């Protein structure tokens, strides 16, 4: 009884599709001691246009949130805790955009 949300979740099991044996897989030729396949970087780490678009979008969104919080202050209303929190949140979003523009994930330090 009860709602559907209150019931415990049951794990979902997926059935793997059967492998076809009609076409044999080609054997991989690798040198002894060499890795089987090189590690591939994620697609979105090196895309300059993606970084510019997302970084400038976040800066714009942060600026909008900040200026909307500042609008009542310009009219003479005293800032409350919610207004201050909204301004801090807007500045944080804008800083996140600057980080994306200047240093994407994985470029700040060497791995390995």
From TrEMBL:
Keywords: Membrane, Transmembrane, Transmembrane helix. GO terms for biological process: mitochondrial respiratory chain complex I assembly. One of its GO terms (cellular component) is mitochondrial inner membrane. Residues 1-36 are annotated as: Disordered. The chain crosses the membrane at residues 83-101. Residues 46-92 form the Distal membrane-arm assembly complex protein 1-like domain. It comes from the Eukaryota. This is Distal membrane arm assembly component 1. It comes from Bos taurus.
